[in-house]
Amino acid sequence: MKIYNILFFIILVAFISSCESDYLDKMEESEGYDFEDVFLDSVNFKNFNDKLVVTPLLKRHRNDVRPLGDFDDVSDNSISGPNWTGVPSVQAAAGDFYPMRTNGNAVMCNNDTWSRIWNQIRVANICIRNIDFYPGSISSRNVILGTSYYFRGYAYFELVRRWGGMPYFYKPISADENMDVPRLSYQETMLLAAADLDSAAMYLKPVIPESDWGRPTQVAALGYKAKALVYAASEFAAMQPGAFTDLWDDAALAADEAIKVAEDNGYGLVPMDKYYYIFKENEEEVYTKEILYGRRSDHTWGSNSYKQRYRPPGQLSGQYATAPNQLLVDCFEMQATGLPINDPASGYNPQDPYAGRDPRFAESIITNQQTVMGRKMQIYDRDETKTPATLGSLSLVYSDGQVSMGYTKTGYYNNKWMGRTFNANLDMHYPEIRMSELYLLFAEAANEAWGTPAQLNTACRYSAEEALNVVRNRALMPNIASKFLSKDAFRERVRNERRVELCFEDNRLFDIRRWHIAHLPENRDMWKMDIAKVAVSAECPTGFRYTPMLYQQRVFEEKHYLFVIKLDDTNIGPNFLQNPGW
């Protein structure tokens, strides 16, 4: 395949650069380990390698911290309360990411992700460099090597989709080497990450014991390889100077390979009545079947728990942290017809807007009159059955220009990270990549590569249309309607399916950036549902009147397609450049 010819030249350049210079990958002279004690002892070598697993680079992988969804709050999926994200939703709405420019530690970037990424790369490189000294078994050696390649590729993937192309280091750098290194392109770095993940897949096992869940597997490596190639093929990467524009074929074949290995080793989609357990509670056979790589975290009910901050106030004793956008709500189709709600044939009733929707809707979003933890949610702006009308639970309170914590700003709450039992602790599972995303990655890439969604590449297990329907059918949704089987129409439905299936899993911001559509007005608008309690009538059969209203339009300029880099790091020298516009 052409990708291997491309990679040969990219790796050659990257390897030469990494041998001559350094950037945030320096071996500290005070590292404090003795070579013989660590790398000539099999137990100590493994413990050193385990730093990659037990010291996660993303904050959400650390126990009892915030769930997924921070990045959704600065996308067009949801809006947060003040200080819920380090660059709050209010600041992000104005395009103000400058807190990251000072120290790079804004919570919106999952706290110290920048420094943790480079530390992970350094640990991985140290392990790879010293693997020939490992005195243990071949199988244990392979686990160490596969884990190191996996986390180097994974770290670069997370780095690039936040900050863009970076120098790619293949060895830990000594403290006296030059630090001023030119950056590779976004696409080049993603391709190198994909190559590392491919290497990881050669050493890792496809299935591991449940007790090792949270460690990488062959399937996770292949899944992330496919994801990195999809990012490398997408519009934002392909529009950069010198980029290759024909990588969709490689991305589709990589996703197909990941699907085959996953399915052949027992991974798959769980039934819809188990969908809740993918993310919550302890049904091991559910989350280990569908989640290819993720982490567990125990959340307490009490006031210091992020789970508590996600809950609605009042009946569920919460503080409210995030409110879904009405435009996200609109993405959930009608179940009976499988059509978008703006299709006249869909069966949608704007005055009974939550009836008959995609079953994933109630699993993901809390709506007015929905029963949650045995309590009916009362979410409305005002009660017009009383004279004078009284305020309801959507009232906005402003303090010093910021929306206060308390009630939803849009008429909705997040349900994906909510449990089913009041006043109970909750074990949560945070998927970084899961089986449904493999099908969606393949559907997207195959449609772009081979012209029409029905086109079947004989080397692949599914067509793009079939792969999309696997995800829809699990959700008890009909097959995609035939009217959407042109290349362009199917592209939009795949993007919609990703938004629905993966909502609040920190994909949407990166999706609209890689597709280069985040600056478009329709992807900057935040809408709310104005809800008034009224008398039951033919017009308002539920006793509520629903009126969508524009709440906010966010600022998103070309510079926002990449985060700003810490000033200290761009001051290293003239070759390591700040991202454009910052």
Q: Could you walk me through the main structural features you see in this protein, from its secondary elements to its overall organization?
A:
Belongs to the SusD family. With 582 residues, the protein is α+β, with helices and mostly antiparallel strands. It has a domain at 1-62 and 110-204: Alpha Horseshoe (Serine Threonine Protein Phosphatase 5, Tetratricopeptide repeat). It is 39% helix and 10% strand. It is built from 22 helices and 14 strands. It has helices spanning 2-20, 35-39, 42-49, 51-54, 89-93, 98-103, 113-130, 138-163, 186-203, 218-233, 235-238, 248-264, 275-279, 284-290, 306-310, 326-329, 360-364, 435-450, 464-474, 487-501, 508-514, 567-570; strands spanning 78-80, 291-299, 322-324, 365-366, 371-372, 375-376, 382-383, 390-391, 398-399, 402-403, 413-414, 426-434, 525-533, 544-553. β9 (398-399) and β10 form a beta hairpin. The protein is globular, with a radius of gyration of 24 Å. Residues 11-30 and 395-405 have low confidence and may be disordered.
